Amino acid sequence: MHGGRTRAEDHAIVTIRFDGNRVGLVEASWAKPGGMDDRAEIVGSRGITYADLMRGSSLSTYSDVGYGYAVEKAPDIRGWTFAIFDELWHSGIPQEMDHFVSCVLDTATPQETGADAAQGRRSRPRCHSTRGPALPSACHGLAAPSPVTKCGVSPG
């Protein structure tokens, strides 16, 4: 099918035997329709995990006995969980730090300003003091954030 692009087979299934009576199965295909489908499934005697490497940010995992770390604030690691991989990246910490450093170096304008933070602090008690369905309307009428200023310093 893709002889002009590769000398490899159009479709391959490989069985790999590991120590400890473990087996791996790898399937690769140029011929499979529908676009890129890059997944991994790992099955063990006490659980299974599915990883969608193209579109997913977590590992859908089932475990009878639990396992190590799943994600920040996960209440349990037994049964079905959604363990995150590359948690720092998916929570935005490297991107936030990059933006902060760029602002400090005067090569970027902050996306959030000190005035935005102050407005958030002022609005928090109003939003938290209301219970139930009225919550969204209790936060209406708050002043819009000020225009963006360099590194969060308001003029004057």
- Sum up the overall morphology in one term: flat
User: Cα-atom Rg, whole angstroms?
Assistant: 25 Å
Widest beta sheet: strand line-up: 3-4-5-6
Q: What is the structural class? A: alpha+beta
Q: Report the uncertain regions.
A: 133-156
Q: Note the gap between the termini.
A: 68 Å
Helix content: 10-25%
Count of strand segments: 6
Average pLDDT confidence is 74
| Run of helices and strands | EEEEEEHHHH
* Individual helix count: 4
Percent strand:
25-35%
Number of domains: 2
Major sheet description? 4 strands, antiparallel
Report on this model:
This protein has about 160 residues and is α+β, with helices and mostly antiparallel strands. It has 2 domains: about 10-85, no CATH class; about 95-150, no CATH class. Helices cover about 20% and strands about 25% of the residues. It is built from 4 helices and 6 strands. It has helices at about 85-90, 95-105, 115-130, 135-140; strands at about 10-20, 20-30, 40-45, 45-50, 60-65, 80-85. Strands 3-4-5-6 form a 4-stranded antiparallel beta sheet, with no helix packed on it. The longest helix is centred in the C-terminal third of the chain and has 15 residues, at about 115-130. The chain starts with 10 loop residues before the first strand and ends in an 18-residue tail after the last helix. The model is unreliable at about 135-155 (pLDDT under 50).
